[in-house]
Each structure stands twice: as C-alpha cells, then as structure tokens.
Amino acid sequence: MRTTRNLVAAGTTFVVLALLAACSDDPDPEPDPEPTSTAADDEPAGPTGQTLRSALVRIGDIPPALGTDFESARQAETTGGDDVTDGAPECVDYLDGDYGGDESDRYDFEFRDTTAVTAVYTSIKYFDDDDGDEELPAIRDIFAVCDRFEVTPGDQPIEVTAEITDFADLPGFEDLGDDGLRLQFTLSENGTPTRAMYYHFIEIDGVVAQAGGQIAAGSDPAPFLELVTVAEQKLQDLVDELG
Fold first, then answer.
1. Is this prediction's pTM over 0.85?
2. Nearest Cα to 107, choosing from 219, 179, 240, 207?
3. Confidence at residue 97, expressed as pLDDT on a 0 to 100 scale
C-alpha cells in the first residue's frame, strides 16, 4: 500500500514537497507521536505501531545546535507530482512515492522550532515482503536522473536542486546502518537559495528509517550527524527487538 511522502517539509518525511507552516498548539514538550500508519486491516499482523514508533526520534534527541524550542507539528499543505512544472518524470515519481518496495506500515512525525526556523523529520518504514532493501537503491536510481526540478504549489515557482551522497562518502556516517544515504534538496525562489532539506535514509535488515530536517540555505548541516546517529541506534534496537 502506497501513500504520498514529503520531500520538503513542513510535513512528514518520506517525501512530498510541503511548505513550512505554523506550529501546532500542542504544549507537550515530549509528545507521543500518533502519525498515520499505512497498514491495511486485511494484511497479516506485523510489529505493533507502538513497537515501530519506538524507533522515531523524539524532541530530547534533537541536538541543541539545530534549535532548542521544538514542538510537535502537524502536516501543512503538501505538494505532489501534479505540481511539478519542470523536471524529469522520475522527479514526479519520487514526489508521488512511486518507487521502491511497498511498505506494509509507515510512521512519520515532525518537530518544528519557529524561533530558529528549523524543522526536524523522523520516519520509520516496515516491509512485510523483504522489499526494504529496494528502497535506497530506488532513490539512487531516481536521483541519478532527477538532479533538479521546479514545483509551483502556489503562485511562486520553487526551484529545487537535488544531491545524493552515500554514507560511505560522508565523514562520520560511514559505519551507520547496513546501507545509508543523504538526500539534500536546496530550494530557491527567484534564483536565491532560501532553504535546505536533508533526508538521511538508513536501512538495517530491511527496515528503513529516516532522520533529517530543514535549515536555512548555507547553514552547516554538521548537527545532523548527531541526530542520525541516534536514529540509527533506535533503528538497530527495533531490529534487535523484532529478531
């Protein structure tokens, strides 16, 4: 079963373009995420939602360098493949979530710090049919072709450039997960870069997690290493629990 993902985010994280919007009024500094699951009622029983959500990053896991006033957030307006006004068909496939294996269950959540204009995304995907190892290769294949595209979710076109880097080529990330990659989107308006989105996909034993976020264009992404290291350990703990 396949649903839309978020590419750029005021929303969730496995990838659709979403523009930063107002925070929710949830005052709880350590919320219990209740994101939407993609599990169908007639599918075989797998890990419980509570078990899978244990692998999500929480507010307390976010490095202070990314912000110190995070709150839980709700998804704002999102942009899918229909809003692509310039770009390869593969870019559309990515925004529509039409790639990789079919997950049986997925949870996404987001935190925002409006003071620092930062968002942090966390996701976990579980596959019943050993499709998890298809996810990262499929993303690599897409962005071997889709290195730039333009979306127009409103009146203002947004230019997006995409860059993909394997963890093996990122200092500090080399030993994280069985497979891992960083997907970076740089958003520009009228030729001026405004925001950068970093998505870090980690696969261990066919379960895929993602941790990343949005920062101002040109900002140092170094704090994401600490965030992703925590996400990788949570994923490993989940995999160990699933046996």
1. no
2. 207
3. 78
